[in-house]
Amino acid sequence: MCGIVGYLGERPILPLLIKGLHRLEYRGYDSAGVAIVPQAGGDIKGLQLFKKKGKVADLVAEIGSAEPQGRAGIGHTRWATHGAPNDVNAHPHLSGNGRLALIHNGIIENFHPLKESLAQRGHTFESETDTEVLVHLIEEILAIEGCDLFTAVRNALAEVVGAYAIAVIDTQDPDVIVVGRKSSPLVLGIGDGEYFVASDATPIVEYTKNVVYLEDEEIARISLQDGLKIRTIGNHTVTPVVEALEMEMEAIEKGGYEHFMLKEIHEQPRSIADCLRGRVRLDHGVVRMAGIDDHCEMWTAASRVIVVGCGTSWHAGLVAEYLFEDFARIPVEVEYASEFRYRNPVINKGDIVIAISQSGETADTLAAIRMARERGAHIFGVCNVVGSSIAREADSGAYTHAGPEIGVASTKAFTAQVAVLALVALRVGELRGKIDGATFGRMLVELQSVPEKLESILAQEQTIVEIAKAYAHAPNALFLGRGYNFPVALEGALKLKEISYIHAEGYPAAEMKHGPIALIDEDMPIFFVATQDAHYEKVVSNMQEVKARGGRIIAVVTRGDTHAAALSEHIIEVPKTADALVPLLSTVPFQLLSYHIAVLLKRDVDQPRNLAKSVTVE
Ligand code: F6R
Fold it and tell me: Atom 9 (ligand 1): residue with closest C-alpha?
């Protein structure tokens, strides 16, 4: 969702902010803007502000040949919440007197009463946004005799209910940026005589690897003269902790691929290998995971696992349900975080909540873990983004190590989540004495062979391109699978709909008879996952039912299969593996298929309409 970038230093500021905005585009947005403070004593008076509906390229066109100057500037990509995506609602927003400019991610929940009371005191507003209310509130507090910007921001945020990451610049303090956060991430980059501010590290990594992750309810004043000072909203001094950024530039570049999504699909052999590295010791037949090993007793005694997540991460949670039941024999519930957080769930001592999130910032998942922790659960995070909010708030956890995922549609993060969850289920099964040594050892061998098997699936891309051509213009599609492949069917449908805008549904194959079968005709592609596993014969029966009704079957089958293949117009083969690991393979053909259909339909693959990479509002 919205993206924040800020810079304080001597570099040419506009190109730096624009580049930062481009780096943030993947988060999803519908307008963009920048504001730069002119230098004291110079010819330029007042904030240099540019904002535009549309893409960063539209903003660049709007700026044209203007050459704003200054050492402090902020930029923003906005994903509309309060008010339509248009030029006026785009950030930055200015104070009534034009002295301050502010950018904001998140939602100010009490903006109505704040706005009303400000209006009663004479403030007028140009936009429909909650953000403009905040900058007016800061302006009003700043007008109090002796108040500085740092204090004004702190006092204003103390009145705010909601989630925010903000950055403010002040024409009367041209070498300063003040930032603050609560439930929305903010990273500060510390360079040599320069500072960077961003929602995530992608705009920063090019310039410095020294970063400070601002914590919840912290406010920072960054000054070229005085350096970095952090205080809490409660006015306690915080000593900044500088951390080394674990990110390489190549991870956020397309590296010769046409889209990030395609690059990330092809990265999966490596991302799975990275995820297993150091955790699976084939020679010793062991799984080592600090997040589990440090809490052996808790896992041994656990009475239930509740998995929470959203979207693709929720699908990984569904795979986890099968894994935990098979290997660890623990009762599992898988919950949409958005529903779970507003229910009144019964959480008992001994319950472990696994929160799955690529970004580690999803608002609903974050709220769900906070609620579960308050009720006494231990929170185990499965996140991709290192240092993200969920990763930091979890009691223990395991990173997926998939590397930055820039394409909005989640691909390598999903398979890495499934790989981590398989390791967790195996390790916990071992601790609880629920898995025999032979099965355990065989699973480790199978896991280690996944990267190589993925390569052989990726090598079939041309076959998948041909299938994509045959079905790109279908208005609807159905994805069916059973057992471990039921979540794969859901994930296949989600991938197709989110990037191609084709209506697609995923179902357990046997459920077809209870409704979706009515949709089947000769125009309807039905994508089956019919790998040779425990459900193979049953799935083949379901395929026959579709075939009998004239449905067009495309099937993901095990290499060498003839039975399911004979019922299909097209097949994509995946190598044989253990049933529990099939999702790691069978998902990939659907990722490639969705990608190529979206390309054929000329969709914006990496930034599909209306979607955001990191859903930081509920
Ligand atoms: C789909 C997709 C989304 C995310 C969901 C949760 O391709 O990416 O459905 O999976 O928004 O995001 P995270 O995993 O960051 O919590």
Answer: 311
Q: Is there a contact between 567 and 533 (Cβ–Cβ < 8 Å)?
A: no
Say how far residue 483 (Cα) sits from the centre of its chain. 26
Tell me how crowded residue 253 is: count the other CB atoms within 10 A of its CB.
Answer: 12
Distance between Cα 561 and ligand 1 center (Å): 33
What confidence tens digit (pLDDT) does each residue in 287-334 have? 999 999 999 999 999 999 999 999 999 999 999 999 999 999 999 999
For residue 612, give the ligand 1 atom closest to its CA. 11
Average pLDDT over every residue of 62-88: 93
Distance 315 CA to ligand 1 centre (A): 10
Q: How far is the CA of 565 from the centre of ligand 1 (A)?
A: 32
pLDDT confidence of 248, banded at 50, 70, 90?
Answer: confident
Q: Where are the domains of the chain?
A: 2-251, 254-455, 460-618
**Domain 2-251 superfamily per CATH:** Aminohydrolase, N-terminal nucleophile (Ntn) domain (3.60.20.10)
Nearest CA, atom 3, ligand 1: 311
> Atom 5 (ligand 1): residue with closest C-alpha?
311
Q: For residue 589, how far is its CA from the centre of ligand 1 (angstroms)?
A: 19
pLDDT score for 615:
87
Fold matches, 2-251 and 254-455: no
**Does the pLDDT of residue 283 top 90, yes or no?**
no
Atom of ligand 1 at shortest range from CA of 365: 16
Per-position b or e across 530-545, b if 16+ CB within 10 A of its CB: bbbbebbeebbebbee
Q: Report the CATH number of the 460-618 domain.
A: 3.40.50.10490
* Beta pairing partners, 223: 176, 227
**Residue of 341, 358, 501 best suited for mutating to test ligand 1, as the one with most atoms within 8 Å of CB:** 358
Q: Which residues line ligand 1 (CB under 6 A)?
A: 310-313, 357-359, 362, 365, 409-410, 494, 498, 614-615
Q: Are 290 and 391 in contact (CB under 8 A)?
A: no
Contact 198, 20 (CB under 8 A): yes
Atom of ligand 1 nearest to the CA of 408: 8
Active site residues: 2, 613
| Tens-place pLDDT, residues 43-53 | 778 999 999 99
What are the tens digits of pLDDT across the range 495-543? 999 999 999 999 999 999 999 999 998 889 999 999 999 999 999 999 9
Residues ≥6 apart with Cβ < 8 Å to 384: 357, 358, 359, 360, 399, 400, 401, 402, 405, 413, 416, 417
Q: Is 55 left (phi over 0), alpha (psi -120 to 50) or beta?
A: beta
User: What does the pLDDT look like over 209-227, one tens digit per residue?
Assistant: 999 999 999 999 999 999 9
Question: Percentage of the chain surpassing pLDDT 90?
Answer: 89
Instruction: Give the sheet arrangement for strand 396-399, strand by strand.
Output: 332-336, 304-309, 351-357, 378-383, 396-399
Q: What separation in Å is there between the alpha carbon of 420 and the centre of ligand 1?
A: 17
Q: Which CATH superfamily is domain 254-455 in?
A: Glucose-6-phosphate isomerase like protein; domain 1 (3.40.50.10490)
Question: Which ligand 1 atom lies nearest to the CA of residue 614?
Answer: 15
